[in-house]
Amino acid sequence: SPATEGEYVSKEQWGSRIGVILAVAGSAVGLGNFLRFPGQAAQNGGGAFLLPYFISLLVLGIPLCWAEWTMGRFAGLRGFHSAPGVFSVVCRTPKARYLSVFALLIPLVIYMYYIVIEAWCLSYAWSYLTGDLMLGADPDAYNAFFDNTVGAKADGHVFGRGSSLLIFIGITFILNFILIYRGVAGGIEKFCKIAIPLMVVCALCVLVRVLTLPSDKVVAGLGFMWNPQPEALLNPKTWLAASGQIFFSLSVGFGVIINYSSYLSKKDDVVLSGLTASSMNEFFEVCLGGLITLPAAFMFLGVSVATFSTFGLGFNALPNVFAQMPAGQFFGFLWFFMLFLAAITSSLSMLQPVLAFFEDGFNLERHASTAVLGIIALTGSFFVIYFSKELKALDTLDFWVGTVLIFVLAMIQAVIYGWVLGIDRGEREAHVGAHIRIPHFVQLLLKYVVPVYLGAIFIAFCYLNV
Ligand code: PHE
């Protein structure tokens, strides 16, 4: 894009408007939508989870998402793409970069376990192709298959050494790094432009298939989601989990959107793009993730769904459903292949902010920063793989990083936007190039309601858990 005088033009830019929306949507739509959301809902009150969930979406998720798009582009136009740079330029003091450590650490640590689950998906897709996963109507067989795939119980480690899973982890890793190496427009954007439409088609096929199963089963399954356990609403953990899920799912709160939007130009509409990307995410989460995984899980596992690990739910229940439908092998493949695509477009967005940090902060060339990042990520993943003694360890890691830390960083960002950048400035910046307006009360939400709301949940949670 042509720069006005004195304006910095970054060496990397998104190729098109639809491209950047798909890239952000790709980051948002991921395992969080199809596996984490149903898992969280099942563990936190079933249908009752939806109330705090939607409140968090409207009060926290979308407003913070706009704040991130705005701050990211603001800093990007001044030549900063990674969280330390963005925080210092928005706060106008280099000291602010210390606040941004989390914004680098969170995506990196999430990457370390996320990639493993991404590889499970690839491995399941493969097992459908080869027919290994057509085990008939026997829920125990699928539990055993899952334990076997991930290596649980084999030798006390989650992922048994030498299991074929390592091959899938290897393929997943390499694919991620090739795409990252190709750059924002040439790798991430190109891939998302193909992957997202493909995901929509696959997911809709599976949805239609699941909802046209014998109706008594479908109704019982859906009933679980819409029959709330209201007691759960009294537990602050439900509220913490709901807001954590919103942040995790929208990729809001931890430096991902800040980084992606820093490759935008002045003419880009951050308001509409942010809203579009978030809406796409909710469609995938509530309409597809919620209507496929959760009812299916309930149909076959009954109330015991709440005892499954967050990410494990989808691997135990859905294969039962596929086994009992015509052409189940084909639908099973579609589903897990779709999950794999969804996961890659997300894991790319966990790497890019860190890559940008190496490039900006240490002046490394792309191949050097990709290599350094690859070594760090690989080492981290191996720690996750070999030191998690049981599946619940992943849940614990996911709870502390994917819920609590994200929550803290989201709070920091809200304060930076509302109090340091200031909502007047923020509001002006957000509307540069915008076609629609953000209602003014959203700014007030960001300044007053978001920090208080987050603070209150956090204090209640700490108080009740210590
Ligand atoms: N939003 C992604 C999902 O729903 C997860 C994610 C986490 C993406 C961290 C980027 C960074 O699966």
Automatic annotation (TrEMBL):
Signal peptide: none annotated. It comes from Allorhodopirellula heiligendammensis. Keywords: Membrane, Transmembrane, Transmembrane helix, Transport. This is Sodium:neurotransmitter symporter family protein. GO terms for cellular component: membrane. The chain holds residues 31 to 496 of 591 of the full protein. It is a multi-pass membrane protein. It is found in: Membrane. The chain crosses the membrane at residues 18-37, 49-69, 102-126, 165-184, 191-212, 239-262, 283-313, 333-358, 370-387, 399-423, 444-466.
